[in-house]
Task: structure prediction
Amino acid sequence: MAKRIEVSGLHAYYGQVHAIEDISMTIEPRSVTAFIGPSGCGKSTFLRTLNRMHEVIDGARVEGKVMLDTEDLYGSSVDPVAVRRVIGMVFQRPNPFPTMSIYDNVAAGLKLNGVRGKGKLDEVVERSLRGANLWNEVKDRLSRPGAGLSGGQQQRLCIARAIAVEPQVLLMDEPCSALDPISTLAVEDLVAELKSQYTIVIVTHNMQQAARVSDRTAFFNIAGTGKPGKLIEMDETSKIFTNPTEKATEDYITGRFG
Amino acid sequence: MSAKTAPGPAPSLLGSISPGRKIKDKVVQGLVYLAFVIAMIPLVSVLWMVITRGVARLDMTFFTKSMNGVAGRDAGGGAYHAIIGTLEQVAISTVIAVPLAILTAIYLVEYGRDKRLARVISFFVDVMTGIPSIVAGLFILALWLLTFGFSFSGFAGSLALTILMLPTVVRATEEMLKLVPNDLREASYALGVPRWRTVCFVVLPTAFTGIVTGVMLAVARVMGETAPLLLTIFVTKAINNNPFEGPQGALPTFIWDQASDPNTNAIDRAWTGALTLIAIIMLLNLAARMITRRRKIASR
Result:
């Protein structure tokens, strides 16, 4: 499990709008990489290019290379659906399927891809819920609707759903921005545990969070409204937060702007 | 000095609701209730009238016998042939229209987006919504009966009703699919689920309740259509269980036929026919409610 992602010369567009410009970086396996930066600087867009979710938006397109170990995600013969099975995603707002029970939500990725067999599903559901630190809270009500859980539980349910399909990489787009501090802590603890098995990329607006959970941090910025977002600097998290190379990074993390 | 001033109640910072606002509130509330009552008057009076006049012939004969050999002034006679006809015709048109309409709506919302083809289809669906029902009947008369040479049948009536049902169900389904949050589609894509499975197993179930409601409205609408049926199923007083051959009865045409006959017995039959039609539509609606409710409980 857990693979390295190597991005080179990546540009992303929404129609005519150039959203991110010329990004190259390496994301290490079995580590947590945080993306920080002001709103609209393209962190989320960049994250979505990493599992080809960017292109589900009309008119969106990508140029450049994203290598997962030795395979190019944007190779001409690559099936985007297969990419998303290998690189899972957790979204900003918890989005459990409202018509499904807790059990079915976790099993959704397998069931919708044609996996049958109650024994196998039971096992995956329990393992994923345990993996998401949710098992003890929901084990007695697996048949209740997923939407009935609290916000923090829903988000952990979404994480369980994402890891149930056994991805290599887990992308998290501001997974705690809709959660209270206690739930945030639960998710952060979970991220720390998951990194032993997965390559994790987390977008966050919360710099303390980036400092707490990540091994490496990438700072994105935008030159002005309508300009494309750029990667300013990427380094060890401790270095970014104590002794960044770029002035803009320092200004951002010390709260001078953003 | 100021300490000596009387410690009367301090003027409230928050104040009280001004009389003007209170009056406005009451007036608007009154108007809302009034509008509700006015809207209920025709509904209740129609129901009342149909029930009081319809019960006269609410007997077994009405539901088991046809009008075969019964003249307008005769007592007795029934609407069995009409009930069977209506149920068959509407069932057939539902079977044709609903899958077509749902697939069209899925194309429009999930695949077409702003493509030219989707815009054209959307435009024609709008046009179809405005087709007067008799025009649908005339169209089937001209195409199915006169051009293709088929004879009058319940099925020809179903085709005319299908034309009327299609746009209603397309629009209703489209609205419901649009209400499904994009988050859910993305969540499904992110699990590596292909688009068509996402539509079948995530989007449609989420919109299910609304789609059923839309279908029921369309069914209720076409069940009362008279004009297109007159031109396509023709008239018969006899029982014809086969919707694919020969003229067939239908409740709306039965009501129309009996009501135009100036005999008390015929008029009574017309009222009971109307009551039956309303009852069938109500029962179907109840059934749909039960289905959607059971689904909700099952998903718990």
In short: The domain at 5-253 of chain A is CATH 3.40.50.300 (Rossmann fold).
